[in-house]
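Reproducibility note. Readers wishing to regenerate the assembly model reported in the main text can use the exact inputs given here. Chain order matters: entities are listed in the order in which they were concatenated for prediction.
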Amino acid sequence: MNDIVLKAEGLYKVFGRGADDAVKKLRKGASRDELGGATAAVIDASFEVKKGEIFVVMGLSGSGKSTLIRMLNGLHPQTAGTVEVGGDSITGVSPTKLRDIRRKRVSMVFQHFALLPHRTVIDNVAYGLEIQGVSKAERLQRAAKVTDIVGLGGWEEKYPSELSGGMQQRVGLARALAADTDVLLMDEAFSALDPLIRREMQDQLLELQQELGKTIIFITHDLNEAMYIGDRIAVMRDGRIVQIGSPEDILTNPANDYVEQFVQDVDRSRVLTADSVMRKPRVTVHEGSGPHAALAAMRENEISALYVTKRDRTIVGWVRDRDVMDLVRKGEKSLAPAIQTDHGAVSQDTPLVDLFIPSLEAALALAVTDERDRLVGVIPRVTLLATLGGEPEAATSAEPVIEPLPTEVVDKVLDAAATKGDL
Amino acid sequence: MEFRIPFGDWVETGKDWIEDNLDWLLEFLGNLWTGLYDAVNWIFATPPAIAIIIALALAALLARGWKFAVGAVVGLVFIIGVDQWENSMDSLSLVLVAAFLALLAGIPLGIWAARNQTVSNIVKPIMDFLQTMPAFVYLIPAIAFFGVGVAPGIFATVLFAIAPGVRLTELGIRSVDQEVVEAGQAFGASPRRILRQIQLPLAMPSIMAGVNQVIMLSLSMVVIAGMVGAGGLGGQVTRAVSALDIAIGAEAGISVVILAILLDRFTASFGQGMGLYATWAKKRRAKKSDVEQARVDAEHLEVGHPIRSAGAPS
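Running the prediction on these inputs yields the following structure tokens for the assembly.
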């Protein structure tokens, strides 16, 4: 397959004495504590990263994620297993070849920026190109362009110590982007930044990735960050990858208790999108069908309103039972006069957090549409609440709200009581 | 049988072997060092004292500023006043040659030790040995190998003074932020390039502290080397001690102190951003960076790139 940019297979990293024996023991199923003097940092890690993907490796400190990322560009030689970058193996190659791969294929952004403090911003950004042997004029020109892209235009001749943390990391990012490699490794790149700046950098990274289509491998210990920027996430624990999946996969189908515990604290409303919680619309009506059919459908399902669609399910609007009843009384043949077009539908990739207000404003269960405005589902308010509570299944078993008695019935009873003089 | 380790005999045998077999090398080194000393000494001793004082005062002004320049002039005039000028210039030449040789060997050795753990493990006890051995002991092999004169003085001084040069170089390189070194590796820089562009520049403060220490230790040893006929202020001190002449002893001693202070302040100011030179350099750099920035900005305008500002640093 051509679109696999980086492939790791059966990677092990064991520090200390008797590393090879330790790998053999681990392969036979020994646990991490049974290795005697050796310490296993990464155990049997295998994954593939596709072109243009943001692949996040998530784990707490000591889970081996930093060791893992350093094996992907050979900063830590692996104890066993293979790594392929763009079809070239980086395991068991000569130092010269390895340096060549690092120059052309993999660049890296560091947690504490790792800028050269004695060089200006532009010279830092041009560093990768300088090592690649690009001529001075060209590398400065390319570096200036990238510096501008990351929003540091006007700061080219400053030294790193004159910049704030966020700006320093922009330089780190620009340096990696300028090297123009296939893969970008980011080691806890935003962890040293304060929360506001971190958010800003995450947004900028997503923007850049859309623009430039880079393949990014991102290490973090922050699950919210992983969920926000990751296309796929590998969760690591004690040196092993325990689950690889999309953010929604991990959130809704945690592979084990550990992952489940982990995702408890995630802000679900920002990760889950409308299409992951929506239900099939119970009943809709075509705009061509008459008021009779619409009213019958509502009565059958005991509901007071319906969405109206075209034949191809493109949403048109909604109708209320009272308006439809009027049409029936007047003998109208078309449903059109009763259709209200303020359906307030949301697109299916809207995050949950943006659904609350539309859900309040909608007269019936919030409509969800795809990119061609076709009605693909609805989200009743109760589902929204159940999902936030962490148990989407609760919505289906939830008792419907008890309907109030019709007003005239209540009035009649009250009047009857009043005439008896009980009050 | 009495317990006795004939360690002294072993060392003597070793010394004899060197004398017998490496005579040509000793002679070559002795001549080389004496030649170096003569050349440096010619620079300081030939011109009239006043010229040297003016030159040193100017250098002091550039390196640290006018206060140090005034202090240097006062100190040097005092040395002339107590009639120790020629001896002082002899000692100064000896210090410079010995310190130069010690650094020439010490800095590369420190770099090697920083990059190779085995070398570090071997070098470390040797440096402990060289640093703690009583300084006078070095004079014995020095005389045996090189006879009496300047060469044994330089030999003993280099051995005595080399340790901080090696140690502080190694320490400086080892304490460079590992992440920055990793950054160099991650972008595919060769080890030599990482050394040149990252490790050495970042270790420079520590290396300069080593240079300072080597020079100061050289000065203290050069005085002791007066005992083997290296001349200069050391010779004066030795004579004063043997004749119990407190007057000469004090005058030569104070001259040593003045030289020591001058050398220490000079070397400590390297890279500290003090003095006239640093001010000029700063101005020049600021101007250059302004010009560069203007050029970069102009290029942006040409290609029609809007200059996005990232806001002020927080």
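We highlight two features of this model. Residues 275-306 of chain B form one domain. The interface with chain A takes residues 177, 179-180, 182-183, 185-190, 193, 197-198, 201-202, 289-290, 292-293, 296-297, 299-300, 305, 307-310, 313-314 of chain B (CB under 8 Å).
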